[in-house]
Protein 1
Amino acid sequence: MHRRRTTVALLLAAAGLTSCTSDPETPSPNGGSGVLAGLDGVRDTWSGLQEVEDGVRGLVVEADLDEDITPQQLTAVLDALAQAEPDLYTLSLAWGELPKSVPDDLGDRDLVDGAYSALDPPTSDRAEQFLASARTYDGSVTLSSGGTEVVLDDGGPDDLTTALEATIADPVLRRTPHLGIRTGEHQPGDASAVRSDEPMTPVTLDRWRRLRTTLASAPADSAPWIRLREGRDHDDEPPVRVSVGLVLPGVTQPGTVTPETWGDRLWPMIRPQLDVVGKLPPGSAYELGNEVPQPGGTGLPDLDRLVSVAVGADADAGGPPTAWDAAATTYLGGVTSP
């Protein structure tokens, strides 16, 4: 699963502005100039004061890393950046060229843009996770304070299965928390994905495999996707969430997909998915929606919620019940009963 050409960037921002920095600085023996010049593993670099937002100048550092940079060398680079306290820095892995200013749009160069916040320590762990991800997955990798995000070059759910298998097999990746992997065929909102706050385990892989098999029962030409989310972004969210989306052919209005009109075509997919959800921790949630176009056909499609249920008698799925929820809740209760 190694990439023919690994290209990854790490885009982060540290808090605060730096008062003075020359632009550019003296070139280094390793190529480039600035605060990272001369560090082992840095192929080319520059740093200087740039406009980082309207009317605000701050220290920007850009660097391209050697393809065979070691975790120890990358740790030293990250430590040097932490000491310099730049407002924005971008590290690319073996790309071969550097932006000449703050990158507004990394485009489809297979680079990665990160969040505007500092990496969680220790930097040695993050360096190891970044390089293991870049050298394992066929896709682009984002390393940020929020974790590691992977967008696969290949766009099917089976490719996601392969990536999860590689995660469990790799000694670094199977210890990596806050890891998310998604397919690359669609926009983030309608791509299949798995994300876990805790390091992924064989249990994560088994849950995904069982969910993946249910797609064979989806209606023809419905472009189904599944997202498995293990962990919470907020305290009031479920411990595990399974989200399923469809684009049912010929359906253009919300509220028209009912058990009477679509039950014989959707229940064969829904029930096996609820079989998986019923074995999740109490409070876990399942939701199924169908994408419908915005009025006038402009803008992103709306998701017409069809099913929204939760595991446990006292669990709240959120939102008003739908025409599907009563039957789905009854079925889920039978799955969770001892």
Note: The first strand starts at residue 8 and ends at 12.
Protein 2
Amino acid sequence: MKKTLLLVLLIGLVQLSFSQETYKRPFFTTSLATTLTINENYTLDPDDGEPFLIPNSIILRMGVGYQLHRRILLSVHTGFDHHWGYDITAIQDMEPFAIILQKTMELLFL
């Protein structure tokens, strides 16, 4: 558990150190997530050994793009979802064109 937590912390630190805003340059984004569900076989007996929450899916997103100006960017994103509980696999494809209207990063997708 400590090794896993240390690995996640290290990956987060590396991602944070390379996530500076750059304009008029290409960019690459990734994310990895999971959803949790309640274990149906969970009991209140502490000797059971089964966790209360179990992972139900894995979600992977990747995107590449180019920031043309401080408030205009073009990008292509794709994603992979696999849900074990329902045996569903999906691949998404998104091509957003975003114009940043305010400095608060509120986006309008056309």
Note: The chain has a mean pLDDT of 78.
